[in-house]
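Supplementary Methods. Inverse-folding protocol.

Structures were first reduced to a discrete structure-token string of length 409. This string, shown here, constituted the complete conditioning input.
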């Protein structure tokens, strides 16, 4: 087989290697790749990180002994652990959202966004924002916030009085209550952009070409629709990557865009200093972008119902014969709004529902599990394809070396 024929065969094998088309082969390569990675990591630690391993073991043992010992410090330690779990939880969700070059788990849609929305609705319902028992009183693994199912009377009288348009809690009052988790999530998204930077940086030092450029160059020109547009945008970005600096990275990180998955790769490839890349990414994602998203969700939940009601009444007033029925319609809208505001607000994916109960919680659970399954499938496919590509590169290098030896003889 010729070199061009072998390349085409390798390309088809990579494209067809998925859990849906070749499940057993994909799982086999995934397990082999993970086993090799763990083996290399263990060998590296045993040869280069003996003292680091001893330090970690001693530190962990000391922490375990300290936490298990009884004493007056136990209450403070428990409180500290709650803050640590809170921080790690939201940072981990941010990392899961941004890692994987666009294939990450959309944790903003699954957790942070609903948390902000439900807190805003609860604050509007109760007319006050001091409903958290502590900063860490948020959605966490196997845990719902305590304020979610409490009655408003448990928090005290409303501090923001209602008017003819309903309770309107200022955005500036709600924002500080959900700011900590939003910033921690943004910090996680910034950390999730580091692996592509380091991989590309190492490839640049060793003289290798980054995979993103190769894949875009090899992409077929007959793509249509959104995929074709994104590919053209990425090619344009790659051709202008020499202009990357602190300000351009900050702008790219501050707004949702499909191109930032290439920013870390290009910054590593063109030798952008680490702190310049990371600080710009951190400020853009953890400060600017998260606040834009948070304020938007709070504003929508705080004003959307009133806006829909006013616009609907305005439109109906122009329909002949409907104007006389508007008072009755408005009364029904107010009743629907009160019912909506008084409804329970399920959040976390571990809410138990009765069998065959098609409630919001059951639908939400299904969505969460489907997205988790999709995330797992993408990770397995990507890992298996990466391992297969390395094997193909070794095979191609061996063939070229053999041909060179034959030509020399």
């Amino acid at each position: 087989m010729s070199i061009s024929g072998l390349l085409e065969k390798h390309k088809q094998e990579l494209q067809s290697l998925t859990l849906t088309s070749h499940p057993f082969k994909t799982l086999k390569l995934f397990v082999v790749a993970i086993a090799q990675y763990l083996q290399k990591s263990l060998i590296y630690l045993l040869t280069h990180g003996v003292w680091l391993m001893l330090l970690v073991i001693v530190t962990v043992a000391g922490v375990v002994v300290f936490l298990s010992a009884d004493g007056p410090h136990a209450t403070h330690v428990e409180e500290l652990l709650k803050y640590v779990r809170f921080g790690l939880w939201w940072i981990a969700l941010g990392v899961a959202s941004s890692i994987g070059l666009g294939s990450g788990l959309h944790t903003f849609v699954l957790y942070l966004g609903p948390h902000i929305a439900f807190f805003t609705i609860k604050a509007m319902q109760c007319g006050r924002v001091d409903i958290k028992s502590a900063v860490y009183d948020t959605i966490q693994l196997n845990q719902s916030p305590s304020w979610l199912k409490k009655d408003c009377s448990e928090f005290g009288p409303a501090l923001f009085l209602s008017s003819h348009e309903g309770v309107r809690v200022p955005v500036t009052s709600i924002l500080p209550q959900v700011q900590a988790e939003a910033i921690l999530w943004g910090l996680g998204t910034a950390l999730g952009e580091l692996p592509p930077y380091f991989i590309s940086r190492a490839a640049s030092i060793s003289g290798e070409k980054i995979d993103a450029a190769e894949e875009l160059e090899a992409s077929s020109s007959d793509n249509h629709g959104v995929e074709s547009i994104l590919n053209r945008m990425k090619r344009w970005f790659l051709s202008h990557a020499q202009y990357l600096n602190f300000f351009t990275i900050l702008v790219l990180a501050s707004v949702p865009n499909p191109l930032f998955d290439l920013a870390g790769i290009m910054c590593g490839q063109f030798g952008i200093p680490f702190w310049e890349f990371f600080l710009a990414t951190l400020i853009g994602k953890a400060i600017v972008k998260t606040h834009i998203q948070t304020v938007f969700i709070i504003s929508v939940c705080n004003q959307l119902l009133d806006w829909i009601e006013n616009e609907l009444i305005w439109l109906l007033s122009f329909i002949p014969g409907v104007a006389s029925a508007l008072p009755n319609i408005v009364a029904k809208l107010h009743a629907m709004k009160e019912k909506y505001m008084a409804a329970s607000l399920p959040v976390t994916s571990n809410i138990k529902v009765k069998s065959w109960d098609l409630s919001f919680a059951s639908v939400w659970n299904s969505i969460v599990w489907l997205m988790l399954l999709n995330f797992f499938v993408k990770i397995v496919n990507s890992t298996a394809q990466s391992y297969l590509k390395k094997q193909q590169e070794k095979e191609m290098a061996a063939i070229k070396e053999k041909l060179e030896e034959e030509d020399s003889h």
